[in-house]
Automatic annotation (TrEMBL):
Subcellular location: Endoplasmic reticulum membrane
Annotated membrane topology: Single-pass type II membrane protein
EC supergroup of this enzyme: hydrolase
Keyword terms of this UniProt record: Hydrolase, Membrane, Protease, Transmembrane, Transmembrane helix
Organism field: Citrus sinensis
Protein name: Signal peptidase complex catalytic subunit SEC11
Peptidase S24/S26A/S26B/S26C domain span: 36-100
Domain of life, per lineage: Eukaryota
Major site of localization recorded for this protein: endoplasmic reticulum
Catalysed reaction, written as an equation: Cleavage of hydrophobic, N-terminal signal or leader sequences from secreted and periplasmic proteins
GO biological process: signal peptide processing
Keyword Glycoprotein annotated: no
Family label: Belongs to the peptidase S26B family.
EC number: 3.4.21.89
């Protein structure tokens, strides 16, 4: 019969109560994972509270495959720190070490023009 036929037969032999119990268990596992993810987002203040190092560019500090837990800080970024940022058009966050910080001052002016009556 083959593997698929045996699987179908075993599913047919299950009672409805067993199927419902397994479905509820699966739903609870998925729901728990989502709740934990959302809680981590709230605690860390980050959209991606957990990221994986995808390349060896962070060695020797972080190796490929290491899991990083992130948190948002309001302190200014300093050289030597690890930063994570998103690039438009890419879903995966980028992890890099800050080498140098350049301070750029930008001035913004707002011009309001009011029509005058003659």
């Amino acid at each position: 019969m083959g593997w698929i036929g045996e699987s179908i037969e075993s599913i047919k032999s299950l009672q409805i109560r067993q199927v419902l119990t397994q479905g509820v268990s699966l739903g609870m596992i998925v729901t728990s994972a989502l709740i934990i993810w959302k809680a981590l987002m709230c605690i860390t203040g980050s959209e991606s509270p957990v990221v994986v190092v995808l390349s060896g560019s962070m060695e020797p500090g972080f190796k490929r495959g290491d899991i990083l837990f992130l948190h948002m800080s309001k302190d200014p970024i300093r050289a030597g720190e690890i930063v994570v940022f998103n690039v438009d058009g890419r879903e995966i966050p980028i992890v890099h070490r800050v080498i140098k910080v350049n301070i750029l001052l930008t001035l913004f002016f707002e011009l309001t023009i009011q029509p005058c009556c003659l």
